[in-house]
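ESCALATION

Customer reports they have been waiting on this structure for their group meeting. Please prioritize. Original submission:
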Amino acid sequence: MENTIKWDTNLYDQKHDFVSRYGQDLLEYLQPQSGEKILDLGCGTGDLTNMIAWAGATVVGVDNSKEMIDVARKKYPSIEFFQMDARELKLPVIFDSIFSNAVLHWIPEKDIVIRKMHTHLKKDGKLVLEFGGKGNNQTMLNALRSTLRARGHHKNAEINFWYYPSIGEYACELEKQNFRVLRAEHFDRFTELKGENGLKDWFIMFAERFFKDISPEEKSEILDTIQNNLRATHYVNGKWYADYKRIRIVAVKE
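Update from on-call: job pushed to the front of the queue and completed.
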C-alpha cells in the first residue's frame, strides 16, 4: 500500500511537538506497568514511546514514515522501532496493550487496521487510541478548499485523505471485530500552534497533498490568503490555534 507522505521531521519536532505533548494525557488511560509488552502504533519521532518505556514496560514503536523512524532511533537507541504500515502490521509479539496517538485519522481503511490491532493483542488486552474525530479542523479545511476553488484548483479542493469518524461510527467498527468499548469521548481541543505563521506551518506540515502541481509561489500566496481569512477566528491574544476535535477510545479485546 502506498505511502505518499514525506515528513519534515525538523518541522514536526520544532513546531508541532503539541502532538506528543497532548498525547501525554492519553498515557493516563494506558497506565503502562513494568513487565508489560506495549505497541506504540504510529510512534512518530518516539517521544511518547520513550515515556511508556520509563514506566518499565517493554515497548515497540512502529511508524510508516522512514524519516520519523530514523529520528526515533537516533533519539532513543535503547527502544526497538520498525518502519511498518499499520495496514500491514506483522510482528512476532502479542502485546498487552496497543497505544496510538494522532495516527488513525490518516488511514481510511479502518477495518483493516482494527483487524491488525486485534490480531496483535492478547485476550483482554487493552486498546488506547486518540485521533481526529468528526468535524476536526473543519473551519480550516473549508478555508483551504474555498481558496483553492477561487483560484481554479477544483481537483485539489476535492482531495480528501483523512478519516474523521463520529464516535458512534468508530465504536461500532470496534465492536464488529470483537472489541468491547469501555470509554469513548469526542471533544473539542482548540490547539495552540507555534510562531507568527503557525497556521501556515500547520498546512505545510499536514496538508501538503492539497498543493499537488501548484507552484511554490502560488502555494505561498494561497497560504497567506487562508491565514488572513482565518485571523479573526483562529488568532487569539497573539497566538494561532487549530480547531481540533478529537476522539479518545479505550477498549479491550474479547
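Sent to customer with the following note: Residues 216-234 form the longest helix (19 residues).
Escalation resolved.
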